[in-house]
Every structure is written in structure tokens, then in C-alpha cells.
Amino acid sequence: MDGFSVKEIVSVTMILFAIIDVLGAIPVIIELRAKAGHIQSEKASIAVLVLMIGFLYAGNALLKLIGLDLASFAIAGSFVIFFIAMEMILGIKLFREEMPETVSIVPLAFPLIAGAGTMTTLLSLKSQFQTQNIVVAIVLNTLFVYLVLKYVKWLEKLLGKTGVNILRKAFGVILLAIAIKLFRSNTHL
Prior knowledge:
Helices cover 77% and strands 0% of the residues.
């Protein structure tokens, strides 16, 4: 069946929502905002949208062009996620803070939101769902990401300092587990 399908859009939206997990990333977003002073929610959301739609259409070809396979791409993303998790758990700083204006793109838009897990999911969804339905789901998820980024100060106030610290440590461990799972599922050890 060609064309737009509400069922497909809802399915893909839910799958991407779970993979992107922007709600779970709130502690990381708060920490990045604290380092940079602010997050450019529009810039980050546009970067997420462009990265996901671009990768949906050109991901396999782009990786082949530069001689990379999907597993290598996923492993590289797992290392970045691993270091972000270590920062959160141990309270150490690994990312340079000299260029805070770039925090909206790296590491926020990529690899945290539109990372290796999201990109590999997009390529697998392409084999199961109509591309136009995936694009609609990407747009819907990007709008939700934008709202979370835009209102992260309000969310921080709602959670409080203790709530944010607890969430940061807990999500750091979860993020570490995601990094290890991404690494393990893409290596043949």
C-alpha cells in the first residue's frame, strides 16, 4: 500500500520516540545547558531534522562512499555516548568547553538525539515502512525534541536540584548500558 498511513506514522513515531528518548536525556540536556550557558533549541532541532531525514535517504550510500559500514558507525557513536555517560556518573569533564556554541549540534543533536542508534533504526525502518510515513514520524519527533529543549529550564525547576542530580546519575548508568549494548551488538567478539 503506497501513500500516507496513520497506522504506519503512529508506529514509526512510537519507535523513534523510544529510540531518541529525549525525556530520558533531560539530565544530559540540563548539564550541556549549564556548560554552554544556553542551548539553541531551534538550531539543535533543525540539525536533528536534517540529520535524520538526510540519513534516511542517503545513509547507506554515504557510509559506503566513505568506506564505513553501519557497525563501525554505531561503534563510534557508542564511544561518544560512553564518554557522556562517564561525565554524568563520575562528575568529570571530558568534552572541551572552549566552544559552547557548538553544544547544540555536538554532542546534543548528534550523537545524543540523532545518534547511531537512531540512524541504524531509520535504515531498518526504511525496509518495513513507506518513506513518507517515516518522514512524518521524524517531523513529529523533532517537534517534541524542540519542545523539550525549549522548556528544559522549566523542567529543571520542576525536578529541582536533587531530582536533576538523581536523574543525572541514574540516566548516566542507563546511557552507559546503551553505549555498551550498542558496542556489543556491532562487534563480533
